[in-house]
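Hi support team,

I'm opening this ticket because the web form for multi-chain structure prediction keeps timing out on my end. I have pasted the exact lines I submitted so you can reproduce it. The total is 899 residues across two entries, so I didn't expect it to be a heavy job. Is there a limit I'm missing, or should I split the entries? Thanks in advance, R.K.
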Amino acid sequence: MFQSDQNEGDPRAVNVDLQTDATLQVDISDALSERDKVKFTVHTKSSLPNFKLNEFSVVRQHEEFIWLHDSFVENEEYAGYIIPPAPPRPDFDASREKLQKLGEGEGSMTKEEFTKMKQELEAEYLAIFKKTVAMHEVFLCRVAAHPVLRKDLNFHVFLEYNQDLSVRGKNKKEKLEDFFKNVVKSADGVLVAGVKDVDDFFEHEKTFLLEYHNRVKDASAKSDRMIRSHKNAADDINRIASSLYTLGTQDTTELCKFFLKVSELFEKTRKVESRVAADEDLKLSDLLKYYLRESQAAKDLLYRRSRSLVDYENANKALDKARSKNRDVLQAETSQQICCHKFEKISESAKQELIDFKTRRVAAFRKNLVELAELELKHAKGNLQLLQSCLGFMKTNT
Amino acid sequence: CHRIGSKMLYLDIRGDLDSEIRERGTQSLSSLSTEDVSANTNGPNQDALFDDDPEDLFAEATEEVSLDSPERDILLSDGPSPAITPITPPTSVIAPRIGHTHDDMFTHSSFDEIEEEEVDDSFDINISVSDPEKVGDGMNAYMAYKVTTKTSMSLFKQREFSVKRRFSDFLGLHSKLASKYLHVGYIVPPAPEKSIVGMTKVKVGKEDQSSNEFVEKRRSALERYLMRTVKHHILLKDPDVLQFLESSELPRAVSTQALSSAGLLRMVNKAADAVNKMTIKMNESDAWFEEKQQHFESLDVQLRKLHISVESLVCHRKELSVNTAQFAKSAAMLGNSEDHTALSRALSQLAEVEEKMDQLHQDQANADFYLFSELLGDYVRLLAAVKGVFDHRIKTWQKWQDSQILLQKKREAEAKLQFTNKSDKLQQAKDEIKDMEGRVQQDERDFEQISRTIRKEVGRFEKERVKDFKTSIIKYLESLVLTQQQVIKSYFTFRYVTASV
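Hello R.K., no limit was hit. The queue was backed up. Here is the completed structure from your submission:
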């Protein structure tokens, strides 16, 4: 009963306003879930001269996406851009655990119950699968839509090189390095947050983003909890429907017809409730999660700008010192100029990036909230109709 | 006037039993276990330690167990089964007639007549339990409930009247009814369960959500209990029921205390009972009973399973309500920090919608509970009473078999005496045989009577069950319809606002 919604897995659902021009179009045309990894088929259509063919596909795994993302982050040239957030790791653990538990408990339930629950879990697995495909696709589309990043060499290699990129995951040492980098960053983050910016625009953005990011994080967590409760309630209704069915087949009074009718009703409403939970997940939870990551990427941009400002100011101080001591003045001047240039370049692109970010964000929220409302209405009306027709039948038959 | 009549009627039922008591003075109490049934049917969770009435628990001990004079006001005492308080039955068993509705109600043969009468009688009575009020302080405190009866039946003196009752009064009523009717085959509705935790919180004075919920749960359960009891045409006319509904003062039901001597006696009887059940194997000559028993057993299994699922639904919906409220707050905060004005407004609107959803979920969880979950819980407990009644039939059969065996022994003894010269002993033996023959006949009649009663009761019970389930489930579906309509209304407004972003 998995209706394929047009908007499902549509990368533009979370990220509108992407210029989809014919010069470079990327999508994930297929995906295969193996035991502990997912293989994505990345399909590219391009009229750019950089590529050998106009249309081609390669197979990539999650680690290779991360490699690409990290290469952007580490590239100084891209310091002034919001780096599209990396897709989250495909996580089938919970689903797999549930399937395993079901297998173990097979003896304690009837055949119908077992088949039903198995179908449920398989549908859940499929939903998670579709979501992870969508997340990876969004990342690639964002890169392809970015005027500078789309030209990145690593990106082209990623798209075209049809063999394994041999990117190993980070080893322990590298992970530790990352950890320290993050610690330093957050300590610095506090530092630079304290420095008031002369530029009003950036000062406002800084205050805004810090608060916004925290609140999106909170909303995302609460939304997840709410949706999980919804799923749990739908599962209960499923079990109730099964019990009512058994009661209906066993009862000796006129209640048997009654129970069977109500059981049928709950089977249907349960499916609707599951859809409600799934749609809320897509339109609300996923949206919030995505903007949690994007707002972090925007914060990172601000941080890089602040760092370059600090470097610039330090270079100024060093120049003054050099001039006063009349030593290494030329060196200091060059250094200062580089820092100045870097800072101005970052500031200019950052401003545009942040404006684009806002535009994308407003459009994405608007689209998703409207769609959420439409879906909730559709499902509630569906439920209502099921309930009323059942009630009508029961009242005339008593 | 009313009271005297009732007392005499009370004596009537006991008439036959009491004559047995005189003869079987030495017999153990367990074979006449009628008191224990109230323990059985008070539901599975019997909190054996405390009760609503934590008085000096053994104060009444001597009173209840002693053999009192016949004039003792047995009607108003909460003494246990008649096995313990023997009385000399009046030789004329018919009571002075008070009103046509008090006629001949408890003599065995006239039961059938009365039941036929009931079909034509209009059943018009409605009982509500309301206004829970805390009386007293600390651990001696209790909740008093107002019991209001509205009726046009001539059985009652007024058309509308109220009394104040506490929980132990309800338990006491059930205890009396159970001891009178269960062993002759009537399905007596079980009283609501005791709860230490719930009551302690209320006593301690916690005026919070959970103790309010507990009181409401109990109030509703007490109301359903009374309605079920009066719906039973025999029970409705029982003097204890009438007194419970009408009398402004009711003596304290102390034997409902779990740690009283009566309580301990109940537990002993329950244990002895369990042993007896294991050893009695009945030759079922009537397939109807076996069929029905199996039907009720499988119904019990299914209802319990369903009950668990519905309880889980109630729990998850309450969780959903809480989580939705939290999300609403979070969305409001997000809307506040959003610097695009139109989007900020949309997010605030989202927060408002989710707040409404929270309230709807809460209301729906209550409907899930009161219309569905409690219905199932009630029926699980009722089925225990049904099972008890079937078990009593088996015991009655066993008694009859035992009498037959005893008769046979006496005949053999008499036969042996024939060959001796002890003429006086022979006469005694012959007399005993005559008595025994009478007893065997009575036991057989009892067995047939209880079998007849159970057949009728099962028919009545099943009719009630069908009606109950249909009514409740239709009401439940209507609650679901209402919820969906509200959901639609809320999201309609929301969509309108977000579209303008």
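A quick check on our side: Residues 1-13 of chain A have pLDDT under 50 and may be disordered. Let us know if the file doesn't open in your viewer.
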